Amino acid sequence: MSKRGENIYKRKDGRWEGRYIKHRSVDGKAVYGYVYGHSYKEARLKLTDALQSLNLSEMPYQRESSYFYSLTEEWFCHIKPLTKESTYRKYQNLWNLYIRPELGERYFSEITQDVLEAYCMNLLTSGGDKGSGLSAKTVSDTLSLIRSIFHFCAGRKIPVPCDTRDVTVKQSTRKMRVLTLNEQQVICDYIQGDQSIRNIGILICLFTGIRVGEVCALRWEDISLPEKTIHIHQTMQRIQTEDADEEGGSRTKIIVTTPKSQCSIRTIPLPDELVRVIHSLIVDRPAVSGYFLTGSDTKWIEPRTMQNHFKRLLKRCEIEDANYHALRHTFATRCVELGFDVKSLSEILGHASVNITMNRYVHPSMRLKQENMQRLSELLVVR
Q: Which of 91, 93, 134, 308 shows a CA-CA span of 20 to 30 A to 237?
């Protein structure tokens, strides 16, 4: 069976076969070429080489008549050494799931603005495995990937059939879940009564705004209790593996890597009370090292496990369901309510600009709005 969106199949003799279009006959029928390998990975590498050789043999003025998938293979080869592994896998998933099945075997010159607009509308209304449509965010990410491929082609003097900037996907702003002050207090009280290491991890996220992948990758060496700081420079995530389709191959793996941007590498001051709670974990231990959540170099707790633990905690506290990222939203909102300098808050959150902090994470509560509006009452006082 082939991987969705790829012409690579496992044969009955155990070998993997890759198929590609070499050219089309006068009547428009595809003429295929074939490569073979003892593994999926070997066949894919040979298929990539064959596609590159096929495209490099064409004259520049002929490249716009190449098939979109063959130009995309070149783009993948170009970006692989320049891109984080997790990002590269995300691009592969978008291409294999949503782009190649619809646009992959079209001539590049056929992918006009009308075609892209109809393609995006189709994804929104009937895309996905269930045919119920994809989210605007997913379609927007898919369109962004197509734009990158077009930009790559333009840089190689291949005439592009349209300006992809003219094709847009409207995204509605999602309401972010922020814990109320009462909900936050209930969680803090619960953790005070059950100071397990996972619960302390939740408390750290609630009072520093770090992401779930960052707390999972946090090591004891990154925490300085004398200086009352934590240093965030790694994140943990589970990604698909390159040999996912090979027999017996693992489909996913855990990686620990640098955060999503340079700005996310940061040192965060810790509140005194949080320092006290963390110190209580090691008061009777001569030395600690390894991952914070496990105290081991070889064992870890992955983000999905922490997310599930957080949801169980909410149920025990009888709090409305929320995803783990609500801890980050709550931290940012509380900081604004307490009058934090927004520039400082932006750096603590690891954002590239203050605008990102204000637009994405800061959501003043109704209580704060009421307090601000009450200041106008002074103008109504009868003197």
A: 134
Helix, strand, coil shares of the chain as percentages rounded to 5? 50, 10, 35
Give me the long-range contacts of 340-346 (CB less than 8 A, separation at least 24). Answer: none
pLDDT in tens, 291-350: 999 999 999 999 999 999 999 999 999 999 999 999 999 999 899 888 888 899 999 999
3-state secondary structure of 85: helix
Q: Are residues 134 and 223 in the same domain?
A: no
Domain that holds residue 45: 1-55
The beta-strand segments (E) located in 103-228 are: 223-224
Query: How many Å apart are CA 137 and CA 172, to the nearest integer?
Result: 9
Together in a domain, 148 and 24: no
Structural domain tally of the chain? 3
Domain check: are 207 and 348 in the same one?
A: yes
Q: What is the pTM of this model?
A: 0.75
Q: What is the pLDDT of residues 198-253, one digit of tens each?
A: 999 999 999 999 999 999 999 999 999 999 999 999 999 998 876 555 555 568 89
CA dist 215 and 211 (Å) reads 6
Instruction: Supply the CATH number for residue 149's domain.
Output: 1.10.150.130
Please state the length of the chain.
Answer: 383
